[in-house]
Predict the structure.
Amino acid sequence: VEELNKKFSSLPAEEQPAALLKWAAEEIPEGRWCQVTSFGPSGLVALDTMSKMGVLDKTQIATVDTLHLFPETYELVRTVKKHFGLDKLQVYRPEGAQSREEFELSFGAHLWRADPHLFDFLTKVEPMKRALDEMSTLVWVTGRRRSQGGDRTALRLVEVDQSDGRVKLNPLANWGKDEVWGYIKKHKVPYNSLHDQGYGSIGDVVTTERTDPNAKNEREGRFKGQNRTECGMHVAVSGDSVQQMHKRAGIVRQGYEWEARERELSAAVGIQQVTTEDFEDKVINSKGNVLLEVFAPWCGHCQQYAPTYREVGAALRDAAGDLPGGILVTRMDGYQNKVPPQHAAAYPVKGFPTIFLAKAGAKAAP
């Protein structure tokens, strides 16, 4: 690795991608190296370079569909497949799901904000690892660059992944943003139209936002509010950590299997669901009394208490006419939904389940 870095780093930056990819095509057994790409600008440059060199048939091409991508990204994938003739493109998705709806049935609609690391493990890290394993990959090509900032500032052209010992090639490691976009424009390489709408780096629709075009860190718009710029694909994790993630995923999945049934049973007795987004309307601005249960689907105590809460809900529904102002019985998944900050002090959730009775005219002091 040291020799390879020394050899290719001595070349002018503009020559490094083609030289490194040529070495891969000549030295690595056919089919045992691959490009894993999300079709970002750098990955597209690497793909176009391999196409012009005529070595696409010697490598495998894979991408991870997190099931939470922008519509524009899916459109780009279709365009790129046609542009490069990528019939060989292999698409990997979260295990056990072929659509966002299927994923949310197993893990809830807001896992990305409830447990960002578990979300990234399930939608990115695990599918990528599965892809590399199933393709018997020895060496893989990435589009990472030092100029992207964050954890990538010390990136080298060739490195060894500490998780599994595979070699990673970063052919554009020493290119800057201007060089990348200059290449794309010059060679008319297709790219994501969201880049023309203020998105510097594009990931999942739920965690990506527009960025200042003058931002020092190109990936600043990724993982909004999480104070990080990496999803975990390129961060070494131990076998124990992977096992822990699988265990956590199993607990959450079982919880949402239970929740799917419980939600139907609760709705049948008139209990309404509350989310972070409608907490203000359903709880604070409701004219009558509100009974609110904050629970977590994976919480054993919550599951045991659920039949009792349904009985309470049914009883209050039947007696609503005798209660001044009536009463709305509600439940909120507190694992994936939080009480809005402006009401958090009045509605403190320190464990699951937590029950609040917000009386009409006194919602600020339940």
About this structure: The longest helix spans residues 239-268. The CA atoms of residues 34 and 60 lie 4 Å apart.
